[in-house]
Amino acid sequence: PTAEPTLEPTPEPTPPPVCNLTVATAELPQAEFAGEDILAAAQKCGVEEAWKVSVETIDENLGYEAYKVEVAREELTITVTGGDTNGLMYGGLEVAEQIALANGPEGVIDCEGAPSIANRGIKFNAPLDMRTPSYTDAGEAAQLNIPNMWDMDFWTEYFDELARNRYNAFSLWNLNPFPSMVKVEDYPDIALDDVWRTTLPFDDSYNGTATNLVRPEHWENYEVVKEMTIDEKIDFWRAVMAYAHDRGIKFYVITWNIYTYGEQGKYGIDNDSSNETTIDYFRKSVEAMVDTYPDLDGLGAAAGENMDWTPGMESVNENWLWQTYGLGINDALEKDPDREFTFIHRLHLTEFDLIGEIWADFKGTLDVSDKYSIAHMHSSTNPPFTRETFELMPEDMRAWLEMRSDDMYYARWGDPDFAREYLSGMPGQEKCRGFLFGTDGYIIGRDYTASDSDEYGILHIQKHWYEYMLWGRLGYDLTLSNDHILRLMEERFEGAISAEKADELYEAMALAGKIIPQVQRLVWQDGDNNYPEMCLTNITSFGFLDIKYWANSSMAMEESGVMSIPDYVKAVSAGESDFDLQTPLEAADALEDWSTQTLDLVETLLAEEPETASGSEKEFYNMVKDQQMLATMGMYYSVKIRAAVELGLYNETEDTTHQETAIGYLEQGLEYWKEYAELFDERYVPLLMGRLQLAPNPTELIADAEEDISIAETWRIRKR
Predict the structure, then answer these.
(1) Is there a contact between 595 and 631 (Cβ–Cβ < 8 Å)?
(2) What is the mean pLDDT of residues 190-204?
(3) How far is residue 234's CA from residue 227's CA, in Å, rounded to a whole number?
(4) With the C-alpha atoms ordered 35, 40, 42, 48, is the resulting torsion angle positive or negative?
(5) What is the dihedral of CA 495, 501, 502, 507, to 10 degrees?
(6) Cα 24 to Cα 26: distance, rounded to the nearest angstrom
(7) Residues 565, 641 contacting (CB under 8 angstroms)
(8) Cβ pair 88, 34 in contact under 8 A
């Protein structure tokens, strides 16, 4: 007879480490949240002695969002004191982090903290519904994220991550959110039940000013992604805002104007700024928004976008904004005069004198906002674009700086030195209210760019945790050291990856993080849709930024310390050789150096990649491969710059050796581009992007990289 198989005994599960640490917190959501993180850190590492942590005391003398941590080792106690509720939470989170980094409470040290930048916020374009879209809803990321906007689990997870990274402000941007968020008594048929999404695909026929996002055919082709009454929607957003406050996060809603998709002509409402019914509806919608949401901290808007931009119309547009938003907020505050409420007035298409005159009777706090780096914060650490704003701004006013991150959507970025210098260059709290960090061309909700099912659909803030951590943590504490940031990288992968490997990833990200900023400074465009991660632009139409533009027309970023390619060629041709600015060839050398160093680190790290990986280990290698992508792109740009210089010199001298050298560089560039496309295809899927009006696909752009060679081969001399 066949012998019975010998069964191996089931191993006993490893018991969790003994944890004798206890936490006492004030009965405040912020303190309780920090206490949970402290206990989780202690349970992970185990605590044998009976440590006690107190997160209970508020001492206003410490100041706004400040904290103090005091350790009594003989008594085995750690005491956190906060200047306010947020300070208490941040002090508790600091203790949790120290326990995790030191592998126990024994390593916690006395320390203090206070914010370097008062408000550290997120700019979030929110695709609420087909009928109430955001600016970039004509893209796949937006359409996929519509259900997430109505999922409480999404928001609780999101705000937890923001709080841990010391963000204290959140701004939800939508063209016209009122039909999806409020009921207006005099316009009862406008409030929208249910959540809709069109079933029609988007394409490149949707314009960049969002004036044709909702079309007649959409109303015949839609799906209901969630059934909700308007009352249920109101309850939902009340809960979202309350939860944000429980994590110390102020909540703002910011709009563009005038968009009336959700109203669809009801009651005679349209986009005409002279339409009295439209003015009345918006005024009452604003009042309803303030009344309906007690945890709403402010509204924001622009006197522009879909309004008449004809010179001389600024006063008309500003008056419309006052008659709707200004008076609507005033109407609400008259009923609740003690309520603190802010209006954030965006600054494009208006002037301070006009704002001061028209908004003189505003009952709330009037702030302004401006684009700090236009759309490209990954460029210069000292952008010049808001200097006039701060020179002209009245002394009693404060500005929010919009930190637009539309330089890259796929690869993970992280250069601590750049982030610290960028934030350090902002005006102080006597002028600057804070920053709002986010994208305009991509929806930073759940991320759907990955082909790997483990990453597909994770929170954008989780995939890009390192960058969010840098802006939030350094925004709170500009003295946070690179050594501490390195330890956070090590702790992230502890148990899955050695500290040595984590250190090498940290170094690779710091190097690769310099690549896109260098390219942006050299070949700068003010427009929203310059996209260096794929060498795409909207200079003439959306497409590849070819060598002809680089050689003939490219401009360096103003006051960035970089000399443009055409200016350099002209100077060299005139016999100049001594330059105060960084030359294009020096920029190319820097790109090659950073890229080579990154690729060397990547090669070492990937040599030890297992055939199968999961969890933190997989995340680690995906982060490594993103740096490989950026470095390969850096090599491409390094040779393209050199090719552009050579073609410029050929144009000036008619010496064909310059043309031949340029062709050689572009042939190298083609090979780098093919490598980049292969790396992209292995891990990512092209998504249609709302502002770019295309789905970035480097494989399809190989033909454009080849065309650059043809352009150089058939170059016609053009005398300036």
Answers:
(1) yes
(2) 95
(3) 13
(4) positive
(5) 180
(6) 7
(7) yes
(8) yes
Q: How many Cβ atoms from other residues are within 10 Å of residue 472's Cβ?
A: 24
The length of the chain in residues reads 720
| Cβ atoms 447, 459 nearer than 8 A | yes
Please report the pLDDT score of residue 2 as a whole number.
57
Q: How far apart are CA 690 and CA 208, in angstroms?
A: 8
How, if at all, do strands 250-255 and 298-301 pair?
parallel
d(CA 62, CA 64): 7
Tracing tokens 């009454």 back to the chain, one arrives at: 229
What DSSP designation does 494 have?
A: T
* Pairing between β-strand 111-113 and β-strand 67-72 as defined by DSSP bridges: antiparallel
Is the distance from CB of 322 to CB of 359 less than 8 angstroms? yes
In contact, 191 and 218? CB cutoff 8 Å: no
Mean pLDDT of the chain: 95
pLDDT of residue 213: 93
Residue type, 303: A
- DSSP state letter for 322: I
Q: How does pLDDT run across 16-45, given as a tens digit for each residue? A: 789 999 999 999 999 999 999 999 999 999
What is the Cα–Cα distance from 281 to 325, expressed in whole angstroms? 11
Query: What integer pLDDT is reported at residue 70 of this predicted model?
Result: 98
Contact 443, 125 (CB under 8 A): yes
Q: 641-660: buried (b, 16+ CB within 10 Å) or exposed (e) per residue?
A: bbbbbbbbbbbbeeeeebbe
Q: What are the tokens at 417?
A: 């030195």
Give the tokens for residue 367.
Answer: 């702030």
CA–CA distances in Å: residue 224 to residues 134, 203, 227: 18, 22, 7
For 594-638, give the DSSP string.
HHHHHHHHHHHHHTT--SS--HHHHHHHHHHHHHHHHHHHHHHHH
Return the number of other C-beta atoms located less than 10 Å from residue 405's C-beta. Answer: 23
For the chain, counts of helices (H) and of strands (E): 23, 17
Report the distance separating Cα 373 and Cα 376, nearest Å: 5
pLDDT for residue 594 is more than 70? yes
| Beta strand pairing call for 399-404 and 298-301 | unpaired
C-alpha separations of 48 from 51, 102, 425 in Å: 8, 15, 46
CA distance 279 to 273: 7
Task: Please report which helix (H) or strand (E) contains residue 512, including its range.
Answer: helix 499-512
User: What confidence tens digit (pLDDT) does each residue in 60-71 have?
Assistant: 999 999 999 999
CA dist 116 and 120 (Å) reads 10
For residues 572, 573, 576, 578, the Cα torsion angle rounded to the nearest 10 degrees is 0
Which residue's structure tokens are 């951590």?
Answer: 469
CA distance 126 to 173: 6
